[in-house]
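Handout, page 2. Input:
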Amino acid sequence: MVASNDGVEWRAAWHLDFYRQAEVAGLITFTSPTRYKLQPGVMAFAREAYVHEEYRNLFEWARKAATPQTPNVVTASRSLHPDALRDVPCPLIGRFRLSGWHRVEKTSAHTANALAQIVGEAVTVCAKAWGGWRPDGLTVSFHRSRKAMGLAYAPGNGDRRISLNETLLTSYDALSIARVVLHELCHHAREEQQPRERFKGYISHDPLFCSMLVLVDAELAANPKRCQFFVDEQDDGVVAASSAAKGIVYAAGVGLLRIGVSPNRKMRMRWEPIGASKWRPSWEPLTSVNFLSMLRRFAPDDRYEVTVVPDISDTRKPMFPPHDMKAPEFVEYMYALSDPAYKRLAAAAVEVFE
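Output:
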């Protein structure tokens, strides 16, 4: 059974010849007669226990709604929010489709009009740089991921669809969003202008892709090798605007800065409001960039009063930090540690208290 969610409707189908149909649909690519790999943005689950919470409702609905009566025919669909898909005017291509904006609108620091302007300018830049290439029929959607800031779905097959990480809308400025849009459009343009077969060892960020991307992203001109990585820093103003939309208040007296450790033994942190809150805090890696960004969300005088606490669920002994402490004391504590990574983090954090 295959279940899908394109932001407009849920669809479910039974496929008796699943692998052939999946290859035709661009979901998988065979690397040998018996081996295949998933295309970007496609996830497969062998057991229900492995299904991420975000997709569990979809699969539970599909299992009940779809029946294997007619193979290879969609047997059930369910329309979603009426505003899930909207047409947005766009230069050169007339309009593009914005999918799933209703899910991110309330927490986004950027408006739909601002996003439309970013996409429109990107389309214009691409046309000038890549010999008039235009992403006619473009669809822009959104996804959640701790890794990929952008996705280009099956580039080269004519279905010009890109997806933006929701984090871009809540933590990054317009320039960073534009760079991701240009990056994903470049995937489509590269595969359409010079098609190639997908094979084992296929490199999506090949020299041709990077040379095309440099033409539209001036920041890569000095270091073209960065064409495959997203290294932009978060914008504190955008974070503050998105936080206000979520109802998050960054004030020392209304929350705690908790330090913990991830399952892969990496240090992490999160801001936890005290009392009832509709916002569910998520962990961020404890890095110099993230720690400074966190502290800058507080008023200058308030930073001294931020309380840093250990994760009581952490079974390591001793705890990190060993007890509750104010932010300046926590910085001094890290600087006194022997680990050079903590010393660098503490040295970088000193500037927010000056």
